[in-house]
Amino acid sequence: MSQLAIHDGAASVPMTVLDRLSQVSVLRGVPTLSERLIALDRFVHDDLSAFELELDAIPRGARMIHRAAHHLLDLRGKHLRPLCVALTSRFGEGFTERARSLAVAVELVHSATLLHDDVVDLAERRRGQPTACVTYGNAASIFAGDWLLVAALRRIRQSGVEGVLDRMLTVIDEMIVAESVQLERRGKIAGAREDYFAIVEGKTAALFRWAMFAGARAAELPTAAETALERYGLHLGVAFQAVDDELDYQETGTGKDALADLREGKITFPLVVALERESGLRDRLEGLLAQGEVAADELGAIANTVRASGALAATRALAEDHVQRALLVLEELPAGPARDALVTVALASLERQS
Amino acid sequence: MSQLAIHDGAASVPMTVLDRLSQVSVLRGVPTLSERLIALDRFVHDDLSAFELELDAIPRGARMIHRAAHHLLDLRGKHLRPLCVALTSRFGEGFTERARSLAVAVELVHSATLLHDDVVDLAERRRGQPTACVTYGNAASIFAGDWLLVAALRRIRQSGVEGVLDRMLTVIDEMIVAESVQLERRGKIAGAREDYFAIVEGKTAALFRWAMFAGARAAELPTAAETALERYGLHLGVAFQAVDDELDYQETGTGKDALADLREGKITFPLVVALERESGLRDRLEGLLAQGEVAADELGAIANTVRASGALAATRALAEDHVQRALLVLEELPAGPARDALVTVALASLERQS
Questions:
Q1: Among B168, B259, B273, B276, which residue has the fewest nearby CB atoms (within 10 Å)?
Q2: Between the ranges A75-84, A306-315, B58-67, where is the mean pLDDT highest?
Q3: Helical spans, DSSP H, in chain B
């Protein structure tokens, strides 16, 4: 069994995207995605094991906040952000103690935001299980988020790596502002496309970018490489979110409720596109959201309109476009197993099922 | 009109505590509390004006998190923690830019915890107004708290003062663990006295202590002075909380609902003492809390039992004891207007009405 959650199901999917991306030089003479994933797994296996050991060692005190935090951490996410730190560090001296510490920190920050988001969204399921706020209550989920955030910042501070703490504080600020934008525009459909990219960059891409930056700093890479890797992180983040948006329209696999984003009036890319294409959709959706609780059949009807508009294909195209941009950026980096691994991560992000 | 909220009403209260504390040498030849407060006001007037200007300059963006944050900040708290930073800095080179920055930071951290607490406690009123979570919603209050916390940490980081960021991260950790302890023991009355002091030290005293530490560090005071000032902060924090607990039993003035702590099953010192003295109280209270919503008359009956037990006098004695300890610590510091001002703050903390 692979350690990489992005592996699951991906190997069996026909990799037609490889054909569509074939003009990108880093893909020339490429093996299949299955072969790539096996190579990636081998390349990062020890690093991820070391990371997971350290994540497990986050204090499991008797306190409710500790239990609420581990409730989420133990459900093991995809660990994609720590993977970014690990792979980036392999362009230099590798996944050293300080790189590992930054990898744990990025997962803790990500987990902190999920704990607060689930309270805000009244979310009931995450990673296929009841959320921490359902099991331990909103208060414990809020304080557990605060606790993980502080634990992450202390770890970043203690790593002694230049510049990563300041940058993380900036990233968290961007994430919170993006959350606020998302909050304010709930149920209001105006300005959707523009807001969408502002939210995605702040909420998702900024943290991927930090993971690349942190890995580069820990490995003391030259500035040009660091900047290129950050751009990769940004594009990977947008692609990741676009695929996430697409998955909201699928019935199974994510561990979240299907159509959860739509029900909450969150702007996702399929919705942005469908609203531009279907003139009556805006009024229908605003009417529904104004009622508060949205009935399942009405939600299903809206989802069908979105699907029929071809918005899912447009979302896929957005994801592929950003994967392509991520791959083009990689051409600026030295060829080798680290670069190959980042190619695989970008490609696999298009094929993930959860 | 004095800038110091702790001034309000205090000057007219007979300062009998001065007699009871008369063995403390820093009080010898002391003027009345009224005279002391006038001197304090004069001594810190310019510093507090500079602080308030800087606090007002915290970004007022278009975002809901900014509005929710300023909803609280603009209601002006007592600014007691920033006052601690300012006065401590006056033992050295004074309220410099970096000391001011730390004073703003401590108020932001305090405000962040209030924004999260109000969501957790479902609090409706704070400083005489609807809470931010009532006006802007829980989500905005949670994210506004996150935003202020990060804004505080960035400011502390940028101050460049040695050791204050690490210490603040430790303090926030202590505050969150104390919140968790408080949460876990809601409705459970066992182990009350012991838990009470653990909660007070983490939730309240730790931040006062940091304020003294930060002022001392900004002013580059010798280690012995820094340590003494930290101990002062710890005792001031416990005294402050004890008076706060007492105020929960008064009908007016605090801007919070009376008996709010009791209604939420929070352990306060009057309750700790009453439970030790009134054997039937524990069962009555646990029975009430188990019902969920507590009726006003039942709450009033419990409050009367607490009052009749003499627990408020015991709470006052606790506060006075810690004020006395704070004053004794001040004997280790050089005499002068800064020390006199801290004497006044400690004394006035006993007389505050809000």
A1: B276
A2: A306-315
A3: 16-20, 33-56, 64-73, 80-89, 97-120, 132-136, 138-159, 164-184, 192-200, 206-218, 223-247, 260-263, 269-277, 281-290, 296-308, 311-330, 337-349
**Interchain pair B179, A143: CB under 8 A:** yes
Q: Is residue A172 within 8 angstroms of chain B, CB to CB?
A: yes
**pLDDT given at position B16:** 55
Does B142 contact A142 at a Cβ distance shorter than 8 Å? yes
Residues forming a β-bridge with B130: B125
Q: DSSP assignment of A239-306, as one string? A: HHHHHHHHHTTSSSSSSSPTTHHHHTT---HHHHHHHHH-TTHHHHHHHHHHTSSPPHHHHHHHHHHH
Residues 137-156 of A with CB under 8 A from B: 137-140, 142-143, 146-147, 149-151, 153-154
- Which of A150, A169, A179 has the CB atom closest to B154's CB atom? A169
In angstroms, the CA A165 to CA A237 distance is 20
Shortest Cα distance, chain B CAs vs residue A169, angstroms: 6
Task: Please state, rounded to an integer, the average pLDDT across all residues of chain A.
Answer: 87
C-alpha triplet B72, B76, B77: angle, nearest 5°: 95
Burial class (CB in 10 A: 0-12, 13-18, 19+), B3: middle
For residues A313-318, give the mean pLDDT. Answer: 96
Measured distance CA(B214)–CA(B347) in Å, rounded: 22
The arrangement of secondary structure in B5-349, i.e. its CATH architecture, is Orthogonal Bundle (1.10)
Residues of chain B in contact with residue A179, where contact means CB-CB under 8 angstroms, are 65, 143
| A chain contacts of residue B143, beta-carbon cutoff 8 Å | 116, 120, 176, 179-180, 183
Kindly report the nearest CA distance between residue B333 and chain A, in angstroms: 32
The CATH number corresponding to A31-344 among 1.10.260.40, 1.10.600.10, 3.40.50.300, 3.30.365.10 equals 1.10.600.10
The interface predicted TM-score (ipTM) is: 0.85
* Chain B CB contacts of A140 below 8 Å: 180, 183
Q: Which residue has the tokens 């980042």?
A: A342
Task: Tell me the Ramachandran region of residue B196: left when phi exceeds 0, alpha when psi lies from -120 to 50, beta otherwise.
Answer: alpha
B140 CB neighbours in chain A (<8 A) are 180, 183
